[in-house]
Amino acid sequence: MLGLILLTILILLILGVLPTWPHSRSWGYGPSGGLSILLVIVVIFLLMGRG
Questions:
Q1: In the 3-class helix/strand/coil scheme, how is 1-45 assigned residue by residue?
Q2: How far is residue 18's CA from residue 42's CA, in Å, rounded to a whole number?
Q3: Which residues of the chain are modeled with pLDDT < 70?
Q4: Which of 48, 42, 51, 44 is nearest to 4 (CA)?
């Protein structure tokens, strides 16, 4: 249950830092890339826990 909540929060954070939004246009792809790596790590841990 906690993993699903964390996964949802990470997906929302990735959508919030995409450089298409006016508030994050000057950030570039750095923050979304870092959050995407965290998302992949969480998904791997979730899959390993269920297997």
A1: CHHHHHHHHHHHHHHHHCCCCHHHCCCCCHHHHHHHHHHHHHHHH
A2: 19
A3: 18-19, 21, 23-25, 29, 50-51
A4: 42
Which residue type sits at 13? L
| The two structure tokens encoding residue 16 | 């919030």
Q: Is the pTM of this model over 0.85?
A: no
Query: Residue 33 — φ and ψ, nearest 5°?
Result: -70, -40
Q: Give the up-direction half-sphere exposure of residue 14: CA atoms within 13 A in the CB hemisphere.
A: 14
pLDDT of residue 13: 79
